[in-house]
């Protein structure tokens, strides 16, 4: 029975199996959008569509069998024939340094996914993404999907980084009409510093789901900001990317 003939239950069972099975992904494109980030576009032979907001595990395997795996969000629209990842190189980072400095086009890496149900956009509900640093990645997937569907207005993004050069996808986010804040860079519209409640308040109108993503410290800041503005906590979905460098929220500003 082919995919077109599968019932919804069967299709879900197949997708669940693939999400728990490791598969090979080939690096088709690799570039370094900034000195500290790498963008990988990978081909996976057999995959089911993902939902915007989901992530994959990338596993590295040394010749002696030692393995290390980390989760990485997808930046790509589910219709994109390739999976796109944007990874920030962490100092002494076991996996991110390898992906940035060693991995090459043509290399095959082990992948498992797509993973994540809670932090996904359903492609129909008006949403606001409040994201910091590499936390922009799942928001980019949501915005690309909304644009393809001709419903760009459904996904609003407020993104924060240190400087335009250090914020992944800054140019694309600007084209998408995102509200941007830089903690260490003045723009004509605003001084340097984290988002203020006055900047976020006008973005709340009509939004039904709120996606917060970034370092633990950024997530705490953004979630508090939304709660202080009266957003229902049941409508807030948070994804934390790991150790906090504190870069996305400058406490001195
Ligand atoms: C659901 C999910 C999705 C994620 N998506 C992305 C993504 O799209 N892009 C991306 O770049 N990362 C993402 N991450 C973070 C990623 O999984 C790794 O934690 C990160 O790449 C560091 O792994 P590493 O092996 O290089 O560093 P490690 O060897 O694990 O750690 C090296 C050093 O870096 C510090 N460190 C680890 N992670 C971070 C971090 N996120 N920020 C600051 N310091 C850190 C550690 O404390 C340690 O000092 C995601 C995490 C989660 C949970």
Which SSEs are present, and which pair or pack?
Elements: H1 8-20, E1 23-34, E2 37-44, E3 55-61, E4 67-73, E5 83-88, H2 94-102, E6 108-115, E7 127-132, H3 136-148, E8 155-161, H4 170-175, E9 179-182, H5 197-200, E10 209-214, H6 216-228, E11 236-240
Parallel strand pairs: 7-8, 7-10, 8-9, 10-11
Antiparallel strand pairs: 1-2, 1-6, 2-5, 3-4, 3-6
This protein binds flavin-adenine dinucleotide.
Your description of this structure?
- 36% of the residues are buried.
- This protein has 2 domains: 20-115, Elongation Factor Tu (Ef-tu), domain 3, CATH 2.40.30.10; 127-240, Rossmann fold (3-Layer(aba) Sandwich), CATH 3.40.50.
- The radius of gyration is 18 Å and the shape is globular.
- Mean pLDDT is 91; it is low at 244-248.
- It contains 6 helices and 11 strands.
- The strands form 2 sheets. The protein has a 6-stranded antiparallel β-sheet, sandwiched between helices.
- Helices cover 23% and strands 30% of the residues.
- Bound molecules: flavin-adenine dinucleotide.
């Amino acid at each position: 029975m082919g995919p077109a003939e599968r019932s919804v239950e069967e299709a879900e069972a197949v997708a669940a199996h693939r999400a728990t099975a490791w598969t090979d992904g080939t690096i088709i494109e690799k570039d370094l959008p900034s000195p500290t980030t790498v963008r990988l576009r990978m081909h996976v032979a057999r995959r089911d569509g993902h939902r915007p907001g989901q992530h994959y595990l990338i596993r590295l395997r040394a010749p002696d069998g030692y393995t290390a795996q980390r989760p990485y969000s997808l930046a790509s629209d589910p219709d994109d024939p390739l999976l796109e990842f944007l990874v920030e190189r962490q100092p002494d980072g076991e996996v991110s340094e390898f992906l940035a400095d060693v991995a090459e086009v043509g290399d095959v890496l082990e992948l498992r996914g797509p993973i994540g149900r809670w932090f996904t956009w359903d492609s129909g509900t008006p949403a606001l993404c409040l994201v910091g640093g590499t936390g922009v990645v799942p928001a980019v997937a949501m915005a690309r999907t909304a644009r393809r569907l001709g419903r760009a207005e459904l996904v609003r993004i407020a993104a924060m980084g240190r400087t335009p050069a250090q914020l992944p996808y800054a140019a694309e986010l600007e084209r998408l009409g995102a509200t941007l804040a830089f903690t260490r860079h003045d723009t004509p519209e605003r001084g340097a510093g984290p988002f203020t409640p006055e900047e976020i308040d006008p973005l709340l109108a009509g939004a039904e789901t709120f996606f917060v993503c970034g370092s633990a410290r950024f997530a705490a800041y953004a979630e508090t900001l939304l709660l202080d503005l009266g957003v229902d906590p049941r409508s807030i979905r948070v994804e934390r990317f790991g150790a906090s460098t504190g870069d996305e929220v400058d406490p001195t500003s």
